[in-house]
Write a structure and sequence with these properties.
420 residues, alpha/beta, four-stranded mixed sheet, 16 helices
Length: 420
């Protein structure tokens, strides 16, 4: 149309041609051509829109690829409806801040970076309840009274002075008898010898204890690598000696987990890594390496069990210990103690007497064995006595004084059955 309009305008100015008809027709077609869209421009615009649409599609696909199809939260604290006020700053709730503080303290005490603790509401649980989950698995739960205080007493439960307007419950960490009391009754309860705690402190203490007990389950590959990266800053030679030729990050993780499971923190991680470096050329078994690390670390953790300058412990009868050592079996992945059910029952019966007595005296239940028997003995009796501490003589500092709390032994008939 532009070309035709141009030709008509040329005809209009030619001397032999009528001016007005050609001029008007050319002008009319020119106006029409001006208002019509260019097909090429339409094509370009459509192409650009297609590109933008494809880019948006790729962006959405990329976001979908980075979003896991399952819940990847490590630690989750679920709150019932009535407890949400604890996590509402507008209402004075400082739960998130206090959890952040306890996370920093745990990192300092345990020696590694604690994964993020996610706080969520859960409308499916009772309003006063909370749950502590690890990778979606419930580890513990309890209930709180929002506008009350928890009163506890360290004295004999049979000699407690009754409290008025109190609701009986149990303290979640040590399972002590306790009562929910009104805020205005706090002074009265404390005068009667009770210790009072606000509900948020009860939750925080419970959460802290659960995380300590399960510290070995919190430490993943990425957490181990992050810790190694920090150690590398001041110990580059040590890390270069270990990785990647001598050991893997996974092996170091398993050694760390073995130690954490028995309450030994990673605050001396460089010393642990040095031990791994010294013995990894002889064995790649994480149990063997963690046992060697325990010997190096003994001077740092055994002191936690000293009371009145003595280490009170149950000693194994030499005959029994020698027989049990012969029943230690090792596989590529495990080390264990294999004894008959009758011998197991007899040992459980005698050991439970010592353990219960030591707990009653506010002592840690400790058994002393040889290094060959320590880990198999611990793992065999751990299901029955989760808090039982098993130490080897090789872990004890030279200046430790041992107080013999009792001797674990069997009669001759049971001893003969150990080897059956």
């Amino acid at each position: 149309l532009k070309i035709v309009a141009s030709m008509l305008m040329v005809f209009a100015i030619m001397p032999s041609m009528p001016f007005l008809p050609f001029f008007c027709l050319g002008l009319f077609l020119g106006i029409i051509a001006f208002h019509l869209k260019n097909p090429e421009e339409n094509t370009d615009a459509s192409f650009e829109q297609a590109l933008n649409h494809q880019a948006d599609k790729l962006t959405d696909e990329k976001a979908a690829e980075t979003t896991l199809p399952f819940n990847d939260e490590i630690i989750t604290l679920e709150l019932g409806y009535n407890l949400l006020v604890f996590n509402t700053p507008a209402n004075g709730g400082d739960l998130a801040e206090r959890i952040s503080n306890i996370q920093k303290k745990l990192e300092k005490d345990l020696g590694f970076f604690i994964p993020k603790i996610t706080i969520k509401d859960n409308m499916d649980i009772p309003g006063n309840n909370y749950r502590i989950l690890l990778r979606g698995k419930e580890l513990a739960s309890h209930s709180l009274e929002v506008n009350r205080l928890l009163a506890m007493s360290g004295s004999d439960e049979n000699n407690l002075i009754p409290l008025e307007n109190a609701t009986e419950t149990r303290e979640p960490v040590f399972n002590l008898q306790a009562w929910w009391i009104r805020n205005e009754d706090q002074d009265s309860a404390e005068l009667k010898g009770y210790t009072t705690v606000d509900p948020i402190s009860v939750l925080i203490t419970h959460l802290s204890e659960i995380l300590r007990q399960n510290a070995h389950l919190l430490l993943g590959r990425e957490d181990t690598q992050k810790l190694l990266d920090v150690i590398k800053i001041k110990n580059p030679t040590l890390i270069a000696e270990l990785l990647p030729d001598l050991v893997s990050v996974g092996l170091i993780q398993h050694v760390f987990q073995n130690l954490l499971k028995e309450g030994i923190p990673l605050t001396h991680a460089p010393l642990i890594l040095e031990t791994i470096g010294d013995f990894a050329s002889f064995t790649k078994h994480p149990d063997d390496l963690s046992e060697q690390a325990r010997r190096r670390l003994g001077m740092y953790f055994v002191g936690n069990y000293i009371h009145d300058h003595y280490l009170s412990a149950v000693i194994l009868d030499p005959k029994l210990e020698n027989e049990l050592v012969t029943q230690v079996k090792r596989t590529q992945f495990e080390v264990g103690l294999f004894i008959t059910p009758n011998v197991s029952q007899e040992l459980l019966k005698h050991l439970s007497v010592f353990v219960n007595h030591m707990i009653e005296l506010s002592l840690e239940p400790i058994v002393l064995t040889s290094s060959e028997l320590r880990l198999p003995f611990k793992r065999f009796f751990e299901p029955s006595f989760p808090k039982l501490i098993v130490l080897s003589y090789q872990e004890l500092p030279a200046d430790i004084q041992i107080r013999n709390f009792g001797i674990l032994k069997l009669n001759n008939d049971d001893l003969k059955e150990v080897n059956k």
